[in-house]
């Protein structure tokens, strides 16, 4: 039921909505992990800082993939 509600309430397809949501949340996560990495660095914990920086990279790649898929889907709708 929830999948059908997105199109009704937002006027956009579920796939479009979901890809936008993935990109947004991935970038939000990257921003948070970047802050966590700085916190770890300030505490002299390089291992944990490196872990969080790796997460930032993963989230950015995830957001880029979602944006690429979104572009492809939107172009196909024309």
Topology, pairings included?
Elements: H1 2-10, H2 14-42, H3 46-76
State the main characteristics.
mainly alpha, elongated, 78 residues, 3 helices
Structure, explained:
There is one protein chain. The protein is an all-alpha fold. The chain is built from 3 helices and no strands. It has helices at about 1-10, 15-40, 45-75. Helix 2 packs antiparallel against helix 3. It is elongated, with a radius of gyration of 17 Å. The two termini are about 25 Å apart.
Question: What oligomeric state do the depicted chains represent?
Answer: single chain
Give the proportion of residues in helices: over 70%
Q: C-alpha Rg, in Å? A: 17 Å
SS summary, helix count: 3
Question: Terminal Cα separation, in Å?
Answer: 27 Å
Sequence stretches where pLDDT stays below 50 over 5 or more residues? none
């Amino acid at each position: 039921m929830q999948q059908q509600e997105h199109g009704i309430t937002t006027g956009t397809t579920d796939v479009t909505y979901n890809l936008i949501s993935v990109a947004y949340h991935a970038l939000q996560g990257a921003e948070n992990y970047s802050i966590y990495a700085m916190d770890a660095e300030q505490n002299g914990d390089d291992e944990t800082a490196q872990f969080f920086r790796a997460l930032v990279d993963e989230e950015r790649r995830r957001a880029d993939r979602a944006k690429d898929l979104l572009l492809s889907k939107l172009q196909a709708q024309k």
